[in-house]
Write a structure and sequence with these properties.
The complex is a heterodimer.
Chain A (H helix, E strand, L loop, with lengths): L2 H11 L4 E3 L5 E5 L4 H10 L6 E9 L9 E9 L6 E9 L4 E3 L8 H12 L2 E3 L32
Parallel strand pairs in A: 2-5, 6-7
Antiparallel strand pairs in A: 1-2, 3-4, 4-5
Chain B lengths: L30 E6 L11 E7 L2 E8 L7 H5 L7 H5 L7 H16 L5 H29 L4 H21 L8 E2 L2 E2 L7 H24 L2 H7 L7 H6 L4 H5 L7 H4 L20 H22 L21 E8 L4 E8 L7 E5 L1 H7 L1 H5 L6 H9 L3 H5 L1
Antiparallel strand pairs in B: 1-2, 2-3, 4-5, 6-7, 7-8
The chains are: A alpha/beta, B alpha+beta.
């Protein structure tokens, strides 16, 4: 499907989704309260987004407009139609919480643990939410912009 | 083979080597928890698997990561668009060229750079040589995991020739840095074409030798057929890519689906096997060796003349926005996601590494298998741990 067709499909279920068509792929921003039902619709309905190939977060606190903003970014591809869609969900940086999608796409389980580990985003109803690469007693979330590495190893 | 694994007291919440096993210890009667790694010859790096066993049957495999986590993504946030590429050779060190290539593609996408045809062909040649070298090392190591020692030496013998070519071209044998935004760092060595042709001639016979030695070996087939079955739907759901997904019948070769450089102009086949077991994944990689040879044969005499690098500014600045590039490494789809705020360094960078997603399917694939089969399953996942931990 082309970006226009994907957009039409999304508009029918999420009339107030915010679209961005400047990039290579269509981007849509959905509200956090609608995220879980929207994710289920993406996977099972018209768009058939069965392949979640990238899941990450972005901390916007180093920019002028995003002091309390943290965004989750999901990249989807459909192996049936071969189209790609980027979905973004805005979170409150001071208390980031979002529903897990690991029950819809199994790959999300590891990726969400990584985001929890490095950004401190809490995934609700995640089956096994623990730190993935850092030790359990590690303090702070390294990929946040205000993280200061005590021995200055990763900041040049 | 399992000499260093330790049998733990099930009641104990603390591992004898230190560390908490709270989440790993099963409470059921007769369950046994053993550690494989972080220092184990079959994990090929510092991967730590906590395995729950019922008798000899695997109940659960839980990977513990982070022994080689360097926070490369954070590091890249303070490096310029020219500098950060060099760090990525230290992720999947067996696909160093291809990692660099993926990063260069992403920066070029942001700058909207046109790459000279000569550079494009050189890049594809280097990628395919890297793929052969990587699959060779996997083949030797996989056979060694299953108890065959000879293939390891065979594989390293041929891989050495590629390493020599790499050394002559870009000065390094591992962690190569050759791809830069705009093309390649310098032109190929005058001997390059001749040496690659010599290698291809020698290598064609060697693949037959590999088939005789391992592929058609009945002992090897018995150990890998029907082991670690992954269905196509699960492969997609777990985000598997590369030979792991193609062994389950999923079409996912980025070189075919989203061609970059000159991949749409060369003839090669995407290898698909449908069995989904360890032997299918093995076959995909062995057959890919021949396809890589095929690509190199088509290009080696047809390297166009001209520049090897496009003209770029000394300091690169990407416009504000987001850029994503996907590339097929020896292990699967490698993604580079750059978020730019218009400065000289990336605001946020994310590497989607193929090994990370492939590893997440390990638990699912090995449940119900015998402990001895775990090595046959892990061997065909072709894990490179620095790529997973980043």
């Amino acid at each position: 499907m082309t970006n226009g067709e994907i957009k039409q499909h999304i508009v029918t279920v999420r009339p107030n989704g915010v679209f961005d068509e400047t990039g290579e792929w269509l981007q849509v921003q959905v509200d956090i309260s609608e995220w879980k039902t929207f994710a289920q619709w993406l996977r099972n309905d018209a768009l058939q987004m069965d392949f979640l190939f990238c899941l990450t977060g972005i901390d916007w606190s180093a920019t002028a407009t995003g002091k309390t903003l943290l965004t989750m970014v999901y990249h989807f591809t459909s192996t049936v139609f071969r189209h790609t869609l980027v979905v973004k969900v805005k979170l409150d940086r001071n208390n980031p919480e979002i529903e897990t999608v690991s029950d819809i796409w199994r790959t999300a389980e590891f990726h969400e643990r990584e985001v929890f580990d490095l950004f401190g985003v809490k995934f609700l109803h995640h089956p096994d939410l623990r730190r993935l690469v850092l030790t359990d007693d590690f303090e702070g979330y390294p990929l946040r912009k205000d993280f200061e590495d005590p021995i200055n190893m990763i900041k040049l | 083979m399992y000499r260093e694994t330790k049998i733990l007291n099930v009641d104990s919440k603390v591992s004898p080597i230190g560390g908490d096993l709270e989440g790993a210890v099963g409470a059921d009667e007769g369950e046994l928890v053993i550690n494989v790694g972080p220092q184990h010859p079959a994990t090929h790096g510092v991967l730590h698997l906590v395995i729950t066993l019922q008798g000899e049957t695997i109940q659960k495999v839980e990977p513990h990561l982070g022994y080689i986590h360097r926070s490369i993504e954070k590091m890249c946030e303070s490096l310029s668009y020219r500098q950060f590429i060099y760090v990525t050779s230290r992720m999947d060190y067996l696909s160093a060229h291809i990692n660099n290539h993926g990063c260069a593609l992403c920066v070029e996408k942001g700058l909207q750079l046109e790459i000279p045809p000569r550079a494009q062909v050189i890049r594809v040649l280097m990628d395919e040589l890297t793929r052969i070298a990587s699959h060779e090392l996997w083949w030797g190591a996989m056979a060694m995991d299953l108890g065959a020692f000879t293939p390891f030496f065979y594989a390293f013998r041929e891989r050495e020739t590629i390493n020599d070519i790499m050394e002559e071209t870009c000065g390094a044998r591992l962690t190569m840095n050759y791809m830069v935004p705009g093309g390649v760092m310098y032109d190929i060595h005058p001997n390059f074409q001749k040496r690659v042709k010599d290698f291809i001639q020698l290598f064609n016979n060697k693949i037959d030798e590999y088939d005789d030695l391992v592929t058609n070996n009945i002992i090897f087939q018995n150990r890998t057929k029907g082991v670690g079955i992954l269905s196509a739907a699960d492969a997609i759901s777990y985000g598997c890519t590369g030979p792991v997904a193609r062994g389950s019948g999923v079409t996912c070769d980025i070189r075919k689906l989203y061609p970059y450089e000159v991949y749409d102009k060369v003839a090669f086949d995407e290898i698909i096997e449908t069995a989904g077991d360890s032997y299918a994944r093995y076959l995909v990689r062995i057959k890919e060796l021949r396809q890589s040879v095929r690509i190199i044969e088509q290009l080696i005499d047809n390297i166009p003349d001209g520049d090897f690098q496009a003209k770029t500014k000394a300091v690169l600045k990407l416009p504000r926005g987001e850029f994503y590039s996907r590339i097929e490494t020896a292990r699967g789809e490698f993604g580079v996601y750059i978020v730019s705020e218009g400065g000289t360094t990336p605001y946020r960078i994310k590497f989607r590494s193929p090994g990370f997603s492939n590893l997440s399917a390990l638990d699912h694939m090995s449940r119900g298998s015998k402990i001895g089969d775990l090595m046959a399953i892990m061997g065909t996942l072709d894990l490179v741990i620095p790529d997973i931990d980043r």
